[in-house]
What does this fold into?
Amino acid sequence: MGFYEKHVLPWAVNLACGGKPIATQRGKIVPKAKGKVLEIGVGSGLNLPFYNPDKVEKIWGLEPSEQMRKRAAKVAATIETPVEFLGLRGEDIPLDDASVDTVLVTYTLCTIPDVLAALKQMRRVLKPGAELLFCEHGAAPDPGVRRWQDRLDPIWGKFAGGCHLNRQIDALLNHGGFAIETLETGYIPGPRFAAYNFWGIAKAKP
It folds into this structure.
């Protein structure tokens, strides 16, 4: 791991994902979590203050970056709900089948290298009928914006930890074995090439 990945990238990601527009999005989806929760890509812990301690029993925070886990641990120490960190990727979830009441994924599906394998793992650990809560940025519907997303994507990924601008989040969830129950979309404040959001609730297909 180079200097940029170890020291600069965690700071940059925390800064980019910690702004007010994204915090507003987190506030729409994170409080819906309940029971034993698996958060995929907990990062620096930006979601942790949004959990409802009256509804959530425990949080597993999956995060491969040690630097991010250290940041998140400081946030975890300030909330009521116990948090256990798992230092693995989304493709390698070390939990039993049907052991999770809620999976939460925010601004992470854009980055996971093998996203379909990760979604398969999320389906595996979710209890029957349990919910996957998601809030992600991705492919815009406007042709002009989409062209810029496609042009910038190879460069963007090199500096943004593998983040992709143009993933079709609803299609990914469908291909990954989830049926979307509620879906909202729209631009949030920020650069339009990175500002089109998808958020809602999905459940594993039978």
Observations:
- The CA atoms of residues 137 and 172 lie 12 Å apart.
